[in-house]
Write a structure and sequence with these properties.
46 residues, mainly alpha, 52% helix
């Protein structure tokens, strides 16, 4: 039971650290500068 609690704490810690890392990397400077629209072919057969 103790190992499961420690494993859960470690997993939550890794998720929080990873999430906060990606939040700090997100900024308007890293955003795409122009909108690109990709036209997909209509290949759906009815």
């Amino acid at each position: 039971m103790k190992k499961a609690v420690i494993a859960l704490i470690v997993v939550l810690f890794v998720l929080v650290v990873g999430f906060s890392f990606f939040l700090t990397q997100a900024s308007p400077d890293n955003a795409p500068q122009e909108v690109s629209i990709t036209e997909l072919p209509d290949t759906y057969e009815k």
